From TrEMBL:
Keyword set includes Ribonucleoprotein: no
Highest taxon in the source lineage: Bacteria
Entry keyword set: ATP-binding, Cell membrane, Membrane, Nucleotide-binding
Gene3D superfamilies: P-loop containing nucleotide triphosphate hydrolases (3.40.50.300)
A molecular function GO annotation: ATP binding
SUPFAM superfamilies assigned to the protein according to its UniProt record, in alphabetical order: P-loop containing nucleoside triphosphate hydrolases
Protein name: ABC transporter ATP-binding protein
Keyword Transmembrane helix in annotation: no
A Pfam short name: ABC_tran
Span of domain ABC transporter: 7-234
PANTHER family: ABC TRANSPORTER G FAMILY MEMBER 20 ISOFORM X1, ATP-BINDING CASSETTE, SUB-FAMILY H, MEMBER 1
């Protein structure tokens, strides 16, 4: 394998009706790493994932997945990849055990019973194995879907928004499981819209309009963005939101309870705009730390600008 990279693709491109929905994406994920794949709706995450596991034919791109040519060796790659789709894809009128047995048959596993038992045990599903999948809560359904992904002992997991709509406790348990799997050497590429989940990834890739806008660890992305953030706090802080939007140096204003998060890339202009608020009674104005969410909101705002008529080319990380 190339430098212990489980995924190493360059120039990945997919077009629909002449429009590139994935546009020259480079993606490298180290073996045993958890890489979070983030971006707004329709940014190209699912399309990228489906090209990586050989379900969609790319229009351009080259590279390797698990040391195999991702274009020529799609069949061999599929056998070593566990792909969890956004929607629950198992049979609701079969039990947990029957669903896993069905998947084991699809993979033509030689020792099916043992494989099913192993998957049940791995995800703590033994006690529920006779329950119908359709009767499970969202969290247990996700657990079953992950068990099904693991039944053929894949080396790479491609998880497409695996915890959408799942409660925080079940999401936390799911992520503990993901870390256990990564500890066993399994590589994980996981798309998510949740910032707390992004923080649990080793590496992050942020994509918008089919183009990668940022990559690195959470710390690298936040520091690399050079975004300045101020907190404007007080019972009447909300009344200032509209007045601050569009002012010099202000890129975004987001309310969190009694506080506004005011962000912008130019420290001096932002400080000048906020200076008069320091004298307002009942308002506390202080410099704050940028979060991943602040950075992503800033990135998408700028990316939209770059799509405007007459705008220059898009940024590429
Ligand atoms: N078969 C298709 N034909 C035409 N357009 C498509 C097709 N599949 C996807 N697209 C378009 O490609 C773009 C990227 O879609 P994709 O599902 O990859 O985004 P995503 O980042 O996974 O979004 P989400 O976060 O909502 O799941 C969207 O604009 C979508 O409408």
């Amino acid at each position: 394998m190339n430098g212990a990279l489980a995924i190493d693709v360059r120039g990945l491109t997919k077009r629909y009706g002449g429009r590139a929905v994935v546009d020259g994406v480079n993606l490298q994920v180290g073996q045993g790493r958890i890489c979070g794949f983030l971006g707004p709706n329709g940014s190209g995450k699912t399309t990228t994932i489906r090209m990586l596991c050989g379900l969609l034919r790319p229009d351009a791109g080259e590279g390797q997945c698990l040391g195999l040519d991702f274009r020529k060796d799609a069949a061999a790659i599929k056998r070593q990849v566990g792909y969890m789709t956004q929607k629950f894809g198992l049979y609701e009128d079969l039990s947990i055990r029957e669903n896993l047995d069905f998947v084991a048959r699809l993979f033509e596993l030689p020792k099916r019973r043992e494989a099913v038992d192993r998957a049940l045990e791995r995800l703590g599903l033994q006690g529920r194995q006779q329950q119908l999948a359709g009767a499970l809560s969202g969290g247990w359904k996700q657990r079953l879907a992950l068990a099904a992904c693991l039944i053929h002992e894949p080396r790479l997991l491609l998880l497409d928004e695996p915890t959408a709509g799942v409660d925080p406790k079940a999401r936390r348990d799911f992520w503990d499981q993901i870390h256990t799997l990564a500890g066993q050497g399994i590589t994980v590429l996981v798309s998510t819209h949740y910032m707390d989940e992004a923080a649990r990834c080793h590496d992050l890739v942020y994509i918008a309009y089919g183009t990668v806008l940022a990559r690195g660890s959470e710390q690298q992305i936040v520091e690399g963005a050079g975004l300045c953030v101020w907190s404007v706090e007080g019972e009447r802080a909300g009344a200032w939101a509209e007045r601050l939007r569009g002012q010099p140096g202000v890129q975004s204003v987001v309310a969190f309870g009694n506080a506004l998060h005011v962000a912008g890339p130019d420290a001096d202009r932002l400080a000048q705009t906020l200076a008069p608020l320091q004298a307002e009674p009942g308002l506390r104005v202080q410099a704050s730390r940028a979060t991943l969410e602040d950075v992503f909101i800033g990135l998408i705002d700028r990316a939209q600008d770059n799509f405007a008529p007459g705008a220059p080319g898009r940024p590429q990380a």
